[in-house]
User: Fold this.
Amino acid sequence: MSETDLIIIGAGPGGYRAAEYAAKQGLKVALFEDGHVGGTCLNVGCIPTKTYAHSASFAEARERMASVVPQLRAGVEGILSNPNITLVREKGAFTDAHTVGDFTAKNIIIATGSETKWLPVKGVDDPRVVDSTGLLQRDTLPKRLAIIGAGVIGMEFASVFHRFGSEVTVIEYLKECLPALDGDIAKRLRKTLEKQGITFKMKTAVEDVAGIDADVILMATGRKPRTEGLHLEIIGVGLAPNGAIQVNEDFEVTSRSSSLTPHLYAIGDVNGRQMLAHAAEMQAMHVVNHILGRADAIRFDVMPAAIFTTPEAACVGPTEDQLKAESVAYKCRKAFWRANGKAMAMGETEGMLKLFSNQEDRIIGCHAYGAHAADIVQEVSVLMCRDTTVAQLRDMVHIHPTLSEILLTAANA
Assistant:
């Protein structure tokens, strides 16, 4: 049995970032991974889908993905070559509260990510039905693609495969797409995609895939935490109703007997809090700081997210409906891409931004769709981390002509 300072199970964005940061601080790390390093995001998630989103054709996308993913994976392998990191090429599973495989440590981080959440409908075993991983592995472009689910995965694939030439139909149980996005923004984005030629069937439940007329059916109904095979029952860890490992604000596991170990953490998708790669990375940083006894000022209440459709969308903070439901006094300011000089010069005039502030004029959120919406929302998230007011934003010089002036226009609305 080898003793080390920290055991990490899973080498996705959270796991390998935790290993890298801990090793740089002098901790000895054992990192368990039985698949490719980089996790879902790098291998079958956000990176492959972005190569598709930025390719002109299906053939080009396949070629670029085959080049980009191994290159980035090699970069992660390089990070993990730090002498303080032992990469164990096997599935990590607990044998007791401090032991995983042949390693024992005072501190253990679970970072096993998530997997496809399959809708329990009749015919789900039809060979036409695939998840996002299966769709990315196809070497031929489907003539007709049906997508079950209008969340981030479904909307991004709908946009991409329509642009490649597939006939795309999106089937969604809810009344609107992208529930995390402000309703006005989500509706405008959906209408824009409809004008492009994508068919949406909203408020429609799928009971049997046999009735879906398509060559390929993408199951895009979300993801669930991956915990199978960890042997959590050995260490007394239970799961929340959604299958996630419950944690406190420092990502210490709380769904267990307090007599076991106070140094067990769960980060990233497996804790179900914010299922985003960048959230996992920042949670990793916070946990290592917590282990080292260091304070940090990471704002997990300010978590931007983006949807890379064409045009793209992004958000940070609550939606207008959420603000109303919570009886928050707020002001909403709007700005449009069509009134921006750079957007007109680019031929990208489709877009809208909503900027929210509270009673004290402090910026509390921003939802937008349009060219480079993610970059604009990222600026807002930085401002929110520093409790910036709209008045202060008005006094900040923005380069002309740029799309970021859309934000300044909203502040002056």
